[in-house]
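Interim report to the steering committee. The following record documents the input for Asparagine synthase (52 residues).
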Amino acid sequence: MREGMIPAVLGTVVTASGAALLGSKYKLAATGIVGFGLAHIVLGAIDLIEHR
């Protein structure tokens, strides 16, 4: 498996779960979860591009 694929996929899952929570009363926590997910996606993408 290519390096960076796991953080990118994990970030996608975390972002989707945070987006699902945005409609609930925990809007601030959901925004933080989405942010962490997006950070994982970006870092995974950097690894994927760097280790071609």
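The CA atoms of residues 25 and 31 lie 12 Å apart. The committee is asked to note this result when reviewing the revised timeline.
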